[in-house]
Inverse folding.
């Protein structure tokens, strides 16, 4: 494989190195000679210098690696990097504004005290962005269900729920 | 932030300062250990034993080395220094040699160009084992053949307090019980990780996520056979710890790989490997007998505690000390006979986890207090109030409580708090079983339970767990250096607040935590606010004294005549000096070691002033239980806690909520299941920790602020108490809802459903 065309499964064995291009946070990145088995999470973290998405379980259970692929919230540990060609990928590094300032969700997490060790935080930030895109009205139980795919071991979720409340209130006044 | 005139003043002690690492963490820019990268970096991986007990007949790494991209493969033969390590006893091999003693014990490590290549290299290594029958019952370990040269008994702590030979009065009421606690995992989110870089002087730089840099450094240097100054550790971002990073995991392996290959090597455990790679909370089996007079006065507590320490000692000696010292709970007990045993078995090794021995015995002593209340027909809260300790009272170790102990206030305030409203029948998600929607409303019963607890702050039994801090004031900027491991608890925030409070300077930066400065001790035992907070405070005070000297010198006045108010110094009959301005062009640089009051060993009867200070907490749980399916939903945890003084209310709330979450997990969800020594659920698919849907509402009823004498700013550590009695309160509530004895945690659905036959009693 040399070009950036989609990968034809019939000609690629699992150990062939592949090269491809990913569009992440609005920027095209070349992935050169990568093992086909690499997850999108691995490619982001180890090849593209974007370690914001986290590796807490790499089993799709904890949500710490959550990113948007074509607007859909996914666990990037469960997606092959090479399967994300021609997709629009947004990571936690890409949800702030263009000047590098934190998004309102990110600000709400800091202000509410929702961050302790911070390992689950990038994934939760992505999930709350997704929640805000989908709905501006949610009950406490609906919010809890929406973030129940994101494990946090430090906070007991109390300040995270407060951060979400703040983010909902702020979103009513401007874009997330 | 408080506005003074036109200037925004950065938060001081007592205010909810935001974390200095908050913005980098929400933006994904904060560098955790697993995020690190170096030019030419290799990936390290560990081969682990599939057997809990086996003889090793042969290890052959040659097939691994034939794989392109594999750079080295190491076994016990390649350990360049001491072959054993350990937190308190060096009893754990860097790599197993002739025998393996637990499922997951390291056998070999490899370094390769790519993590997948490293994984395949592990598969290629040939190890011939002769499996042996594992010793898996801690009760049987005392009389069993030793599984380790150091024997199977790690520690027996015997406490005899009061007139233990005196018979009980004939009308005394006694209740007995046997209680069990399963093995809990710390389940921190950031897996074990480290990056080792060989240095030109033959030494190594290790960037590591840990709880205690210096004790890691000492063990790593010994195992590498290097002098300590050639092993330099720097704290890499830590994704939670909760005790699970107090022991060495990959530290020695990754350094050996780096030194052998001459290249940087990174190791990051998978979640599965993390379950094997760190110690867990000790499972416990505990027999108790409580005896009381008819009026409810406790007369005597007898207990026999057996903690399963697994294959290696780790901190078992200290864990069994805590379990035993706090075995009777925060009550006046004139006579006590407690025997605590920490045993060695072929189960996974156990060591530190939040609450550290007090969690296990709290579950038991609080169940006993409820049982005693029922036997005496006294209200459980009244029985506790009748017996709780107060300042000046003597504990079962013979130590008097000299600090604050507002236990009765905690209990009264909690008992008076309103209960949450009844569950709405149409709120399906709120039923036990949640989104599964399996629970029939008619089978759901609500229970309420209450528990109280205490434990020691700081290290005990004569251990001098000092901390070291450096404070530099230069050009209006304060730089604080301390090797305290920030693991998420918020020390970095408090260090800034303390420096601002002491020097009146807003701009405070924290230097990297590393081994270029003296030890800060461990981030454990609820000790860093006191110890490293104390060291930072004293270092800032030392700088403050030097500033005052300089001002006095310059203005020709006595130091005592100067008045320092926040950010300025008033010279009598002279100018008011802004500290920030005064420091321009000057350097004030002070390093301070901070020690707490000395403690003492326990004597042959387990008596002595072994502890510095105690913290108390109370929890009330409301739990809905589907008695037919055995499903539980913890609806609310209300709490009161003895905090000494709040230094950062928002961070305190986070510690309390987070600690309670781990208590909820132990009560009804979390257990490492092992079968004949083999771990069966090393994943977040099978080891369940509370999600946002499992987590109850936490109602902080009161945080009692009575400054603790001797503690910097009067603050007590607050990290552990929330975890200790929350579990016991939930168990009490489930008992109340079901009428079952429920003497084992975690309470599993079948513990309820099979016992009730679907009907609450």
């Amino acid at each position: 494989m040399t070009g950036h065309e989609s990968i034809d499964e019939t000609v690629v064995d699992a150990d062939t190195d592949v090269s491809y291009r990913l569009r992440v946070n609005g920027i095209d990145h070349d992935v050169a000679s990568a093992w086909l088995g690499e997850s999108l999470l691995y490619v982001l973290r180890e090849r593209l210098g974007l370690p914001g998405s986290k590796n807490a379980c790499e089993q799709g259970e904890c949500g710490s690696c959550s990113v948007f692929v074509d607007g859909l919230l996914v666990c990037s540990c469960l997606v092959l990097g090479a399967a994300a060609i021609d997709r629009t990928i947004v990571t936690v590094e890409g949800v702030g504004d263009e000047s590098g300032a934190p998004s309102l969700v990110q600000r709400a997490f800091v202000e509410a005290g929702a961050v302790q060790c911070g390992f689950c935080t990038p994934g939760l930030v992505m999930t709350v962005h997704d929640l805000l895109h989908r709905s501006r009205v949610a009950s406490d139980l609906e919010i809890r269900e929406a973030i129940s795919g994101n494990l946090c071991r430090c906070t007991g979720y109390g300040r995270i729920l407060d951060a979400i409340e703040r983010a909902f209130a702020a979103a009513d006044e401007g874009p997330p | 932030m408080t506005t003074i005139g036109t200037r925004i003043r950065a938060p001081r002690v007592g205010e909810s300062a935001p974390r200095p690492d908050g913005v980098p963490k929400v933006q994904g820019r904060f560098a955790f250990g697993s995020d690190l990268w170096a030019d030419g970096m290799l990936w390290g991986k560990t081969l682990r034993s599939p057997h809990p007990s086996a003889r090793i007949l042969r290890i052959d790494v040659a097939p691994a080395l034939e794989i392109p991209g594999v750079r080295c493969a190491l076994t016990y033969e390649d350990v360049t220094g001491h072959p054993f390590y350990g937190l308190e006893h060096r009893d754990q091999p860097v790599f197993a040699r002739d025998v393996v003693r637990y499922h997951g014990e390291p056998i070999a490590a490899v370094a390769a160009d790519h993590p997948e290549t490293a994984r395949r290299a592990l598969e290629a290594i040939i190890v011939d084992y002769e499996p042996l029958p594992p010793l898996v019952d801690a009760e049987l370990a005392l009389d069993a053949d030793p599984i380790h040269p150091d024997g199977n008994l790690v520690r027996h702590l015997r406490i005899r307090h009061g007139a233990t030979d005196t018979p009980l009065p004939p009308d005394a009421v006694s209740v007995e019980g046997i209680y069990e606690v399963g093995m809990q995992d710390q389940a921190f989110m950031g897996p074990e990780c480290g990056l080792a870089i060989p240095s030109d002087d033959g030494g190594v730089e290790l960037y590591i996520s840990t709880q205690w840099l210096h004790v890691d450094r000492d063990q790593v240097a010994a195992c590498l056979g290097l002098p300590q100054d050639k092993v330099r550790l720097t704290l890499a971002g830590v994704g939670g710890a909760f005790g699970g990073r107090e022991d060495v995991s990959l530290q020695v392996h990754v350094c050996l790989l780096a030194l052998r290959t001459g290249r940087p090597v990174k190791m990051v455990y998978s979640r599965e490997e993390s379950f094997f790679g760190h110690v867990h909370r000790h499972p416990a089996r505990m027999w108790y007998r409580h005896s009381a007079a008819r009026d409810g006065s406790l007369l005597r507590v007898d207990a026999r505690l057996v903690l399963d320490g697994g294959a290696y000692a780790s901190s078992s000696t200290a864990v069994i000390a805590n379990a035993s010292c706090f075995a009777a709970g925060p009550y006046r007990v004139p006579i006590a006979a407690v025997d605590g045993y920490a045993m060695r078995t072929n189960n996974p090794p156990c060591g530190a986890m939040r609450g550290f021995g007090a969690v296990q015995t709290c579950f038991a002593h609080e169940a006993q207090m409820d049982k005693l209340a029922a036997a005496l027909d006294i209200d459980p809260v009244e029985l506790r109030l009748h017996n709780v300790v107060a300042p000046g009272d003597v504990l079962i170790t013979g130590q008097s409580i000299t600090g604050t102990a507002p236990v009765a206030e905690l209990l009264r305030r909690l008992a008076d708090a309103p209960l949450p409203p009844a569950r709405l029948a149409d709120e399906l998600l709120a039923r036990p079983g949640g989104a599964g929607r399996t629970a029939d409303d008619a089978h759901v019963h609500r229970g309420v339970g209450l528990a109280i607890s205490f434990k020691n702050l700081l290290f005990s039994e004569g251990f001098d767990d000092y901390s070291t801090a450096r404070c530099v004031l230069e050009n209006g900027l304060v730089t604080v250096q301390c090797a305290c491991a920030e693991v998420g608890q918020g020390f970095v925030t408090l260090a800034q607040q303390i420096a601002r409070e002491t020097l009146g300077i807003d701009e405070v930066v924290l230097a990297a935590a590393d081994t270029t400065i003296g030890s800060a001790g461990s981030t454990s035992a609820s000790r860093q606010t006191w110890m490293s907070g104390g060291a930072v405070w004293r270092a800032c005070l030392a700088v403050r004294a030097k500033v005052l000297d300089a001002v006095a010198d310059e203005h020709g006045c006595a130091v005592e005549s100067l008045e320092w108010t926040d950010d300025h110094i008033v010279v009598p009959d002279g100018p008011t000096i802004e500290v920030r301005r005064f420091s321009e062009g000057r350097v004030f640089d002070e390093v301070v070691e901070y020690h707490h009051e000395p403690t003492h060993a326990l004597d042959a009867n387990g008596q002595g002033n072994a502890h510095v200070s105690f913290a108390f907490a109370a929890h009330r749980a409301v739990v809905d239980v589907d008695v037919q399916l055995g499903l539980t939903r913890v609806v609310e945890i209300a709490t009161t806690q003895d905090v000494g003084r709040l230094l950062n209310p928002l961070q305190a709330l986070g510690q309390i909520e987070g600690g309670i979450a781990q208590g909820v997990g132990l009560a009804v969800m979390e257990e490492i299941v092992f079968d004949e020594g083999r771990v069966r659920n090393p994943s977040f698919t099978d080891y369940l920790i509370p999600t946002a849907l499992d987590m109850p509402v936490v109602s902080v009823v009161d945080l009692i602020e009575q400054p603790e004498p001797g503690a910097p700013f009067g603050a007590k550590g607050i990290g552990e108490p929330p975890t200790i009695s929350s579990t016991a309160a939930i168990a009490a509530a489930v008992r109340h809802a079901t009428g079952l004895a429920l003497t084992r945690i975690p309470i599993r659905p079948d513990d309820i459903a099979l016992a009730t036959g679907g009907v609450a009693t």
User: Anything to note?
Assistant: Residues 280 and 620 of chain B are 26 Å apart (CA to CA). The radius of gyration of chain B is 27 Å.
